[in-house]
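Input record (one chain):
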Amino acid sequence: QVQLVESGGGLVRPGGSLRLSCTGSQIIFSINVAGWYRQVPGKERELVAAVNTDGSTNYADSVKGRFTISRDNAKNTVYLQMNSLKAEDTAVYLCRVGLTNWGSGTQVTVSS
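The corresponding structure, as predicted from the sequence alone:
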């Protein structure tokens, strides 16, 4: 059974940084697209960033220039480096690998 576990969330002040990690078991990262999503209560889950099997990336307009997604296939891990965080980045961040495999999420709170 595929398991994805996120880590690295927490409370940070505006302008601060966090690095999220998502590590998987029973799944080969190198042949799957991986992405980070976020969800706020009452709103739809939105794609934050994705990295394709060839290493190409795409980002939501709201995070371009501030967030960076990367992957380490040898470690079956995908990362999200988040800089210049804003209050509106507060959400539960979830990773997705392939089409149907989701982690349970990690809370990111940006507040002074």
